[in-house]
Amino acid sequence: MNAGEIGTEAGRIFEYNLPSHWIFRSQEDQNDFGIDGEIELKDGSGKALGKESVFKVQIKGEENSTFIHDNSLLSFTLKTERLRYYFEFKVPVILAVVEITSEKIFWLPLTNNEILREKASKSNQNETIQVHIPIENTLVRKDIASANKILDAVMDCWDHLNIKGLKDSVVRYPVISPSSLDKKIEDIGEALYKAYHQQLDNLLSERKYDSVFERSTEISNSPIVPAKDRFIAVLYYLQAFQISPYTNIKREVYRENFHICQHLILLAREQKSRIHRLIALGKSRKAKFKAQLDQLHASHHSVNHFEEKSLERYIFNDQTQIMYRDCCISLQKIIELCNRMTRDQQYHILSDFFVDIYASILIFKGIHEARGSKESIDFLDDWYERMSLLVMTYCVLSKDIEKIEKLYFLTATLLKQNPKATQPHRKMILSTFPDFEKALTEIENHVISLDSQKDFYDLTTEEQKEYFLSMAKNLGMDPDDPQGEHHEFLKIGFANYDPTNIMKNCEHLFVHYRPGGIFAQSLRMHSLGGMHLLICLKHGHAQGTGNLLSQLYDSTGSYDFGNSFKQSNCDKCADCKPREESWAWSLKWYLKEV
């Protein structure tokens, strides 16, 4: 085949493999010096989609292509003159190399290829340049993935051209009129801040939370960034902090949430935006209610740990009732805010806020049923049922699948109390998404399986410690807070929780816990406070401590060296018999032994 026949055959193969929604316009009248064709995408009705769905193609044919580097790259030669010409286009240019014998199409974006651009700038006009195309860059007929890969490359080229145009525009700023300059600065700012928002979204999706904190702080503290864009940056900061707080000290978490919400309110006021004010109020009300509810939930369940008519129970219950009333006031403000959003028809803000707060409302419901009046209980039940159905209706109409799933999951947690709780929501969802029936059933089954939780004593030791740690923090006793009044006391309690490392040394060793004090009673934690005994069951030796059990057992290296249980008893004992390597202490085992 001669060169003309190869070119014709290459064009035919290329067009045959194009997706049906790609419009190909031949540009052969340019005598092969420039571009062979232009491609534009069209929508379902056959209408062209416009500017950024357009790109140029230069089609090159070969009977047999040359492959290098273990056949991973196709090597092709282009004249420097042509390559420079392609770089001048204001539209993306794709090089397509067609191997005639195999009818395979390989492609490479030229517009954003900085390596080729540099080679072209350093080469003489009449020289040639080697172009290397990865063999995975292929276009296959009716293969959507291969076509989409080209489109992704085209979009990257458009981004490159837009940034290049921006740089060229900046160079011309000294000679343009002040009014034009102001408009360009405004347009560039809009584009730049949208890029920052997308960057924050990408970082959040990639779970790079430290980077979200850093970038959000830079944007939100910048004096030149508009308030609306600083507001969005702070929202990303808040979302990252809720997922992965950079501190585990409860006091610092509350303080940071307060500062974030305060920042949002100030920014909303600065720009006088009604929508942003509603969002900021929603975030603030949610943060305050959740902080109050954490304390109320822990305190409410701790009341039952005290004897029925004890003074401690009376005091604890009285303080819990004060917390309950504070929560009721906060919830009333939340209800008023939801109703206001509904009246203003701000359903997109309402759906975000309600889905965010719904779990806390359901937790409060359990406490409210124990402490509230019948009228207030009935009112809350009626309100959240109506509001959740309204929000679900909006989510279905707006096809927000993520919120539909989350809202349905939370509603399904009510099935144990009310087997018909999900029926209105299910009907609403299936009216628009009939294929979701199986998925909804799976969500319900999953929630039911979570409801049948195993006994507390069947949890692992680490899971039990996590529970007690959470309860302690919510009751205002934070073992992680070095500034806390009872920091050392709580640290000792958690360090003594599991005596496996002591008891594994001998099967005759036993730790008998004797907790004491209001903290131990409010948490009902066996290793907190009091005086704990280390006993040798064979010889009757016993020593007690209110400090660390590890020091009581072995004081090597401490001021009390030589007086520990191990040095006083175990080191000179001939009956010491270590437990099996796999043995581990558990609370369930301990209670059985006691």
For the secondary structure, the number of strands is 11
Coarse structural class: alpha+beta
Roughly how many Å is the radius of gyration?
A: 35 Å
How is the biggest beta sheet arranged?
Answer: 5 strands, mixed
Which term fits the overall shape?
A: extended
Q: In which range does the helix fraction lie? A: 55-70%
- Strand order, largest beta sheet: 1-2-3-6-7
What portion of the residues fall into strands of 2 or more residues? 5-15%
- In CATH terms, what is the architecture of the domain at 3-168? 3-Layer(aba) Sandwich
Q: Could you explain how this protein is built, in words?
A:
It is a single chain. The chain is an alpha+beta fold and 594 residues long. Among the domains are: 3-168, 3-Layer(aba) Sandwich (Trna Endonuclease, Chain: A, domain 1); 460-593, no CATH class. 56% of the residues lie in helices and 10% in strands. It has 22 helices and 11 strands. The protein has helices at residues 3-16, 80-87, 114-122, 144-171, 178-205, 209-220, 227-243, 250-271, 274-302, 311-343, 347-371, 374-397, 401-412, 423-432, 437-451, 461-474, 487-495, 500-503, 518-523, 549-553, 565-568, 587-593; strands spanning 22-26, 37-41, 54-62, 66-68, 73-79, 93-99, 104-109, 128-134, 509-512, 532-536, 542-545. Strands 1-2-3-6-7 form a 5-stranded mixed beta sheet. Strands 4-5-8 form a 3-stranded antiparallel beta sheet. It has a 3-stranded antiparallel beta sheet with strand order 9-10-11. Strand 6 and strand 7 form a beta hairpin. The N and C termini lie far apart (94 Å). Pfam families: DUF4365. Residues 19-141 form the DUF4365 domain. This is DUF4365 domain-containing protein.
